[in-house]
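Entry 14. Structure prediction run on the chain below.
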Amino acid sequence: MNQDELIASFQGVLAHLWMIRTFLKHADEIQDDENMLEVPRTLFDYIRATEPAYQRADWADFFHRLNGKFSRLKKANIYYQENFKTFSDHTNFQMAASSLAACISRLQELLNLVDQLPQQPSSSSGPTI
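Output returned:
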């Protein structure tokens, strides 16, 4: 996978995280629980942290930000997986759990690929998609 493909793959996963975040942000079942509300906040923070680097096409910083906040994202996933059924076992919450776990797994795979990329200077253009 080349750098442009890797960036496009990251963006696809971030889009999935955004949809999970949107569902959870508006889920009435969790609105009174600060700990569960940290999950969509963490997703928001993770996604938005990458945006300035993406817009600048500073791929070294983009990858650095993805990696730097990944441990917090993994903790949010663990919390959600362990606790979502106390709020609702509805299919929407189950699918959010499955999707979040898949996103974490895919992000880990992609982050592992970053180290295999040849070193390149930051470019001023976006990825070719």
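The mean pLDDT is 94.
Filed with the rest of this week's runs.
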